[in-house]
Amino acid sequence: MRAFRAIAVNVARRLLQRRVAIALVLATSAHALVILLAPAGDVFDAYHGFTVLLYLAFALPIAALVTATAAFGDEKRESTLPYLVVKPVGRLTIASAVTFATVGTIVLVGLPGVIASSVIGAIRLDEPAIGLAAIVALLVAAVGYAAVFVPLGLLFERATLAGLAYIFVWESILAFAATTLAASSIWRIGLTAYVDLADGSLGDVDDALAGLAPGLGGAAAKVAVLLGLSVGFSTWILKRRDLA
Amino acid sequence: MSGLDARFVAEPRITIDEVSKWFGQKVAVSEIACSIGPGVTGLLGPNGAGKTTLLRLITGLLRPSEGHVLIAGVDPRQDPKILGSVGFVAEDESVYGRLSARKFVEFNATLAGVEDPVVAAAGAIDIVDLAEAADRPVGEFSKGMRQRAKVAAALVHNPDILVLDEPLNGADPVQRAHLIELFVRLGSEGRTVLVSSHVLHEVERMASRIIAMTDGRLAAVGDVRSLRSLMTDIPQTIRIECPEPRRLAAALIESPYTSGVEIEGSTIHAQAADPAGLARALPIVARQLDIVVTLVEPEDESLESVFRYLIGGR
User: What are B28-84's pLDDT values in tens digits?
Assistant: First the structure.
C-alpha cells in the first residue's frame, strides 16, 4: 500500500506540475465564461449546452488525453521508468497506482471549470444544486478517458496522436454518424449520467445522447469495467514488453 | 577469449544463460553466457558494445529474445520481489527533476520496501557526500551531483547486488575517486557490484574481474591481470618527443621491440612490436645517447583499438 501511495503521489505531482496543466485548467474553464456572458433569457440553455458541447465533449477529452498519455509516456520519454519497475513492486500495483493518479489529476484539472460554471449557473438561474450533474459527469468521464489513454501512453510514443484520432474521428464523427457506436464514446457515457441527474428536459443536449439511455448506474458500471480492463492491460504490458 | 571457465564464478549471484537480445534486425547482445559473484566486476566495452542492453536485461527492463537472466536463481521479470536485493543506476541522466535529492531517495526507499525511508535516505545521502545539497531539486544539480543522487537512490535499501551503468559519468576527479572507493568498499563487504564503463583505467581501479564486450558479444573475461597481459601484446604506436628525434629514432629502429619509426618535427611515431619491451628499452637507449625524452605516450590505446585487437580474426 505504501508503494501504491508513493507512486500515485509522485505521478499526480508530476502531471500537475507541468506547465501545460495550467493551460488545461483554463481550457476546461472556458465554458464558464460563455455562461457568464449569456443573455439573461438564455442562461438555462447556455449552461447545459456549453457544459455538454464545450466542456464534456471537447475541452475535457483533450485535457484527459494530454494528462493520461503523459502518465506513463513521460516516464518513458524521460527514462524514469526504471525507478518504478526495477523495484520489488508488483506490476499490478504500478499500473493501478498510475491509473488512479491519472484519474485524480484529470478531476483536479477539470474541476475548476465545473465549479466556476456551477457557481455562475447557480447564481444566474437561482438553482443551488445545478452543478452536481456536471461534477458526476466529470468523474465518470475522467475514469473512462484515463482507462483508454493511460495504456496508450505506455504503448506508443505518439500516443497523443492516437488519442486525438479517437476523440475527433471515432467519438466526434463515427459515433455521431452511427448511433450503434455511441456507447463506445466516453463523453457520451458521461452525458448519460449528466442527463440522468439534471432536472427536466434539456432540449438539444438530450439529442447528443445519440440514442443512449440516461442512467448514472449504467455509466458507472461501464467505466468501472473499462477501468478494470485498462489496469489489466497496463499490467500485462509492464510484464511482457520491453520497458527501456 | 581467456578460457571458458573464466566466464563463470563459483558463487553466482547473477547468471546470464546464453542470452541474446535483438531489436528488429539489429542484434544488440548475442549469446552471452557468464556469471557474476561477490566483489566488483567491471563490464567493459566501447560505446555500442551492448553493455547497457546487458544491464537492462539483468534488471528486467528488457526481455531476452533468447536465454535467461537469473538473479539469485530467480528471473526478475517473473518475480519482481527479487529486485528488492538489487540497486540499479541507469546510464541516462534521468531523475525526477522537481524532487529534492532527499525526496528522490526517500521515494526509492519507499518503493524498495524500506521500513523507515526518511532515516535510510539520510544515510544514503551521507554516503555519497550529498548532504549539503539534499534539499535542492535534483533537476538543478550538475551531472556529477545527479549521478551521486542516483547512486544514493540505488544504495538506500542496502542491496546485496548493485548494477551500475556508467556511474562515474559526469563526476569530477574527486567525486570519481570517492565513488570508486565506495564501490570497492561495497565489493569488499561481499556485495555483488557490476559496474559498466568504457574507460579502462577506471575499471582497473575498482574491479577485480572484468567482463569485456564488443559488438554485443563477450570479448574477454577474466581478472584484471589476464586482460592487461592480453593488451600489452597489442602492437601500438608510441609518440615520443625529444630534441634529437633522428638520433633516437635510429637507435630505436635497431631494437627488436620496434618495427618502424616516423619522424615529424621533434616527434617520433614508433611502431612498437612489443610495447612492454619498448617501454623498458627506451629509457636505457635515451640515457646511452644522452637525450632527454620530454613525452612518451601511446597514440592508439583507445578501448576500441584494444577490442579490435582482442576480437581480431573472428
Answer: 999 999 999 999 999 998 888 999 999 999 999 999 999 999 999 999 999 999 999
Task: Write the residue in B62, B99, B113 that is nearest to A88 by C-beta.
Answer: B113
Residue in A with minimal Cα distance to B96: A80
For each of the domains in chain B, give its residue range(s) and CATH number, in order of start: 5-222 (3.40.50.300), 236-312 (3.30.70)
A153-188 confidence digits (pLDDT tens): 999 999 999 999 999 998 888 887 877 888 889 999
Binary contact (B80, A89; C-beta < 8 A): yes
127-146 in chain B: CB under 8 A from chain A: none
- Report pTM: 0.84
Instruction: Output the CA–CA distances (angstroms, integers) from residue A194 to A32, A227, B104, in the order listed.
Output: 17, 20, 41
Q: Which residues of chain B have pLDDT under 50?
A: 1-4, 313-314
Contact B88/A at CB under 8 A: yes
Comparing C-alpha atoms, which of B133, B128, B312, B136 is closest to residue B235? B312
B59: which chain A residues are within 8 Å (Cβ-Cβ)?
82, 86
Using a CB-CB distance cutoff of 8 angstroms, which residues of chain B are in contact with residue A84?
111
The Cβ of residue A152 has, within 10 Å, a number of other Cβ atoms equal to 22
For A111-153, write each residue's pLDDT tens digit. 999 999 999 998 998 887 788 999 999 999 999 999 999 999 9
Measured CA to CA, the distance from residue A24 to residue B25 in angstroms comes to 41
Give the chain A residue whose CA is nearest to the CA of B150.
A83
Residue A208 pLDDT class (50, 70, 90 cuts): confident
Q: Say whether A13 and B98 touch across the interface (CB within 8 A).
A: yes
Q: Is A199 on the interface with B (CB under 8 A)?
A: no
Q: Does B82 touch chain A (CB under 8 A)?
A: yes
Q: How far apart are CA B291 and CA B250, in angstroms?
A: 13
At A18, list the grid cell.
Answer: 507541468
How much is the pLDDT for B314? 44
Cβ of residue A93 closer than 8 Å to a chain B Cβ:
no
**Grid cell at residue A30:** 472556458
Q: What residues of A are in contact with residue B153 (Cβ under 8 Å)?
A: 83
Alpha carbons A43 and A35: distance in angstroms, whole number: 6
